Known about the structure:
about 280 residues; 12 strands; single chain; Aminopeptidase; 4-stranded antiparallel β-sheet
Amino acid sequence: MTDTAAPAAATGGCRGVGPGEARALLAVxxxxxxxxxxxxxxxxxxxxxxxxxxxxxTLGGPERSLVFVGxxxxxLRGDAHDHRALGVAVAGLGVGPMSVHGRREQVSALWDALxxxxxxxxxxxxxxxxxxxxxxxxxxxxxGGVRAATLVEFEPVLAAAAAMYREELGSDxxxxxxxxxxxxxxxxxxxxxxxxxxxxxxxVFFKADVAAVSSWSAQIQGVWVRPERRGAxxxxxxxxxxxxxxxxxxxxxxxxxxxxxxxARATYRRVGMTDAVDYATVLL
Length: 284
């Protein structure tokens, strides 16, 4: 049930979620707390209505289907037919192309439509896993000194973030817009206290970003250890430190990892993380 009458339908019957549907929207977000984390953070900030953080689209109401369009596209509910229609509606917003991520089967259905509208993807990672930590971190694993970075540390953090970007995505983060969008993202994460680092003699050897925080969970991304320092347990200790800090706020830590990245998955398992959701990401 919605609170009031829903907004009129637009593209293919799809429409924005209205303020009167806030309770129904929240129920959907709460039903899939790990996957919905970025969307739930937007909802906590500005509710159901469109805002700078993004917007929600639906076909037939949030109880039936739901897609969140922020800095990326996140399908949250609906069958293949719903997501194909919503894909056309997302493309019609004129805000893309942008990455698509979420539950594997929902991303596949949404991309069927978005791919036609937006063209070829750069990479389709269809064998990912969203891992989560449900039990308390073993304090013996926590690496001392890992902490939230500050804006004063922008330059060394930027260098670490760029190294991670090149390694993970195989492209130069400074190639687009003279690097201004990338610099802004790094600065915003620092300003919000969302980037965690380990530093030794002025050099960042570990980095992780807390990309999204809801009332119940937090998503970690951008995990990186300086190559020459790998194999010494710094990744395990760093992630344990970040997870411990999140658990102290009564949040469930989670992150997305490629199924083929056996080293990273082993690191996260040592901290206590387990596979929770079959995931996929389309990079553009």
